[in-house]
Design a protein that fits this description.
About 20% of the residues lie in helices and about 25% in strands. It is an alpha+beta fold and about 260 residues long. It has two domains: about 70 residues, no CATH class; about 150 residues, no CATH class. The strands form three sheets. The chain has a six-stranded antiparallel β-sheet with strand order 5-6-3-9-10-11, with helices on both faces. It has a three-stranded antiparallel β-sheet with strand order 1-2-4, with no helix packed on it. It starts with a strand and ends with a strand. InterPro entries: RNase_P_Rpp40.
């Protein structure tokens, strides 16, 4: 059940435990919103006054349906919430919440096969088959799959996956990659700040080497970074892949 500043509250019914995660991978160093019925109550309606039918139905549901101890997840957007929660100054402090700080986990992916993509060839990847192959590759990185390792020697009868060369359009290089992952409620502001930070610190290139065509010559700069985020239940996710020259590929998938 979620209480909004507008005076509305809603319940979202679901059958499984869900989580949200976000991660990014970079050659220099994520699923999906769960769909379930929503029952919304406007606590400012006249019928929600104590003794009215609307309030009585909500009271009955709380006594007969929500009659077991439940764990609720809340994200506090207050920048000073960490201190104010411990001091007992937040409204939720009355319920003695458990505080969990979202910390990133970094995983090194050494000797990883990476397609040597260049900016001029990006339009050739707009075909659905190639676009899905590239997204699948990013997903394999996010999973830390051994299938993308340069030293993978799995029996082809067990796994037929190979890092795509896009019909021989690109070659494969061996790079040391890093995956950084967060799990928890992730606000848009956090995503924006992370995006700008990674661009500033990891996509720096020399002037004239930003992946664009200059003086009739194609830049061979290959530096890129990818973000992948997933919602509750694993039915929707998005992936963003951006090069140093701001060329960007985006996938928005629903299951």
């Amino acid at each position: 059940m979620r209480v909004r500043p507008t005076g509305k509250t809603d319940r979202r019914w679901r059958e499984e435990t869900s989580e949200e995660q976000m991660e990014y991978v970079s050659p220099v160093l994520p699923k999906t919103w769960l769909m379930f019925p929503v029952i919304e109550y406007n606590l400012r309606e006249p019928s929600m006054t104590h003794g009215k039918k609307g309030f009585s139905r909500l009271d009955w549901a709380c006594k007969n349906v929500l009659d077991q101890s439940l764990a609720w997840l809340f994200y506090n957007f207050n920048p000073s919430s960490h201190e104010s929660l411990r001091a007992g100054n937040e409204p939720i402090s009355l319920h003695h919440p458990s505080i969990h700080t979202i910390e990133p986990t970094a995983t090194k992916l050494p000797d990883t096969l990476v397609p040597k993509l260049t900016v001029p060839m990006l339009p050739s990847l707009y075909d659905s088959e190639d676009a899905l192959a590239l997204q699948e590759y990013i997903s394999m990185l996010c999973l830390n799959s051994p299938r993308v390792s340069a030293f993978d020697n799995i029996d082809p009868h067990l796994s037929r996956y190979e890092v795509s060369t896009f019909d021989g359009l690109v070659e494969l290089a061996t790079r040391d990659m890093v995956r950084v992952r967060w799990r928890g409620f992730i606000p848009p502001q956090f995503v924006q700040e992370l995006f700008l930070l990674v661009r500033k610190e990891r996509l720096k290139v020399e002037k004239g080497r930003d992946g664009e065509v200059r003086d009739g010559r194609e830049s061979k700069e290959e530096r890129w970074v990818a973000w992948s985020a997933a919602g509750f239940g694993g039915r929707r996710e998005w992936t963003v892949m951006q090069w140093a020259g701001r060329e960007t590929l985006v996938w928005d998938c629903e299951g």
